[in-house]
Design goal:
Layout (H helix, E strand, L loop, with lengths): L1 H13 L6 E4 L4 E3 L19 H19 L4 E5 L2 E3 L1 H8 L2 E5 L3 E3 L10 H10 L2 H10 L3 E2 H7 L4 E3 L4 H13 L3 H15 L3 H16 L2 H11 L10
Helix pairs in contact: 1-2, 2-3, 3-4, 4-5, 8-9
């Protein structure tokens, strides 16, 4: 599944017709994370690391970085349970819409496997104290709590999840692809820096943005009181 999703994201990123990606699950689970049987040592009771486990964690981390580096926004539509690497996936997406009945959990501690890699994503999405509480208690949190802590963008009634997710995706997709790509890249670049470094990145991004054909088209359309015609290059 990780490889299939990575391939699909790569294809979307290289397709100029794609301006937003929406990830959904199959209720009652958005994503349950890794198959623990694939992570066990090769021999029962053995202390030799499972070489496939390292490959799985590496591939999963690469997938999360691919989402972050994708030139178009990625929207998660979460219904049911997002647990472990599934919670990591939801936290990594640029916009995360959750159904009211959705829950989020990093339960690894209960089986003796701390959710260290999911912790990377949730610690960057939510309040640190709440992220660590999720990791240390292994308790699930509700969609309302996830919204309060910054893990999700919006919570909607269960029956409206698909329509509201698509409405947000269409709103994003109505904008210039090249400007979306520049803005997303600059946002994640600046947010990890101190204030002075962030402004350096943001200033350079604004100047670069002005050189884009779609910026000239957008400003011209605004001044001319007409709808812009994006190139989506």
């Amino acid at each position: 599944m990780i490889n299939q999703l990575s391939e699909s994201l790569a294809a979307a990123g290289s397709n100029s017709a794609v301006r937003v990606v929406v990830l959904t699950g199959a209720p009652p689970v958005f994503s349950a994370g890794h198959d623990l049987r694939e992570l066990l040592p090769p021999t029962p009771g053995g202390e030799t690391p499972n070489p496939s486990a390292a490959a799985i964690f590496s591939a999963c981390s690469d997938l999360m970085l691919a989402i972050r580096n994708l030139p178009v926004p990625v929207v998660a539509s979460v219904s049911g349970l997002a647990t472990a690497a599934g919670c990591q996936l939801a936290a990594t997406c640029d916009i995360t819409i959750a159904a009211e009945s959705a829950h989020f959990q990093t339960p690894g501690l209960r089986v003796g496997l701390f959710c260290s890699t999911p912790g990377v994503a949730i610690a960057r999405a939510m309040l640190p104290k709440q992220a660590l509480s999720m990791l240390l208690t292994a308790d699930a949190i509700s969609a309302a709590e996830a919204l309060q802590y910054g893990l999700v963008t919006k919570v909607v009634p269960d029956g409206e999840l698909q329509t509201q997710t698509l409405a947000i995706a269409k709103k994003v997709a109505a904008n210039s692809r090249q400007v979306l790509a520049l803005g997303k890249r600059a946002f994640y670049d600046q947010i990890q820096r101190d204030c002075q470094g962030a402004y350096t990145v943001a200033n350079a991004a604004m100047v670069s943005n002005l050189q884009l054909g779609d910026a000239r088209e957008g400003i011209g359309a605004f001044l001319g009181k007409r709808a812009p015609q994006w190139s989506h290059a």
